[in-house]
Specification:
The protein has 248 residues and is of the alpha/beta class. Helix content is 34%, strand content 25%. Strands 6-7-8-3-9-10 form a six-stranded mixed sheet, sandwiched between helices. Strands 2-1-4-5 form a four-stranded antiparallel sheet, covered by helices on one side. Helix 2 (96-107) crosses helix 3. The structure holds adenosine-5'-triphosphate. Residues 14, 17, 19, 37, 39-45 line the site of adenosine-5'-triphosphate (ATP). The site of adenosine-5'-triphosphate (ATP) has 11 residues, from strand 2 and helix 1. Residues 5-245 form the ABC transporter domain.
Length: 248
């Protein structure tokens, strides 16, 4: 199957520090891929390169056949790529519906006031459909700032989904969530259309291994191993560098 994201020989240098050292990565349409690794491994840098938030020092980034190496992040939604951020981006003083509405409007280049025209009203209805897809139908009129932590994360997903992505980059989606909320998040991500490609960085191994079909392990700016969750779990090298212990 054709790759939706192709990373070739990507290096990122921050002054003298090489955060990425010649990384190659192909992501297939519909694939669920998790990137794991110890602190400072280069996961966030790789993610930022794919999202267009950092231009690589050398190497190329191709998304759906288009060379995006030097294109800034604002072009990514047009190529079907959306990302979430670790830090919440929803407006706390707006409702769930309004936040999703603004994500829809922003994606379509409409930055006007809320609900002025019939087209805007249709977008309000569409916002309700998007909320439904992230299990927030019951919270449409609640303020984002009053949502529980897990619901707020669902709203972040909704705002990414509003751009109708083919590829979603999820930056530590489970961070800060309670056990119950993490469980719900896994179930929600599993409920997404299986044509949607998901790339996530995740520190919670349980979440990463349950969602991913393939896990890429990074250390010191390089990919040290890639495999199924079972393969990665059993790899003694991964235990050494990542978990600091030998496989049992
Ligand atoms: N803007 C920057 N300027 C300088 N150095 C940076 C910058 N961003 C990252 N680094 C460095 O690059 C290396 C890789 O960082 P990166 O954040 O990509 O790792 P990570 O695997 O995401 O780590 P963590 O799990 O702690 O988030 C680290 O040594 C980090 O200190």
């Amino acid at each position: 199957m054709a790759s939706v994201v192709e990373i070739r020989e990507v290096t990122v240098a921050f002054g003298g520090l090489r955060a990425l050292r010649g990384v190659d990565l192909d992501i297939a349409q519909g694939e669920r891929l998790a990137v794991i690794g110890p602190n400072g491994a280069g996961k966030t840098t790789l993610f930022n390169v794919i999202a267009g938030d950092i231009a690589p020092t050398t190497g190329t980034v191709v998304i759906r056949g288009q060379d995006c190496t030097r294109r800034p992040s604002r072009h990514r939604p047009r190529l079907g790529l959306a990302r979430t951020y670790q830090k919440a981006r929803a407006f706390a003083g707006l409702t769930v519906r309004e936040n999703i509405y603004l994500a829809l409007a922003g994606h379509r280049g409409r930055h006007r006031a809320l609900w002025r025209t019939p087209a805007d009203r249709a977008m309000g209805d569409e916002a309700a459909d998007v909320a439904d897809r992230v299990w927030l139908s019951g919270q449409l009129d609640e303020l984002a700032g009053e949502l529980a932590h897990g619901q707020r994360r669902q709203l972040e997903l909704a705002m990414a989904i509003a751009t109708r992505p083919d590829v979603m980059l999820l930056d530590e989606p489970a961070s800060g969530l309670s056990r119950g909320e993490r469980e719900r998040l896994v179930e929600l991500l599993e409920s997404f259309d299986d044509r949607l490609t998901l790339l996530l960085i995740e520190h919670d191994m349980d979440v990463a291994f349950r969602i991913a079909q393939r896990v890429v392990v990074m250390a010191d700016g390089e990919q040290v191993m890639a495999g199924t969750p079972d393969e990665v779990r059993a790899d003694p090298h991964v235990h050494r560098i990542y978990l600091g212990t030998e496989a049992a």
